[in-house]
Amino acid sequence: MDLVTGAKRVIVAMEHCTKDGEPRLLTQCTLPLTAKARVSLVVTELAVLSVVHGEFVLRELAPGVSLDYVRDRTQARLLVSQDIKEMAFAR
Question: Would residue 5 count as lying in a domain?
Answer without folding.
Answer: no
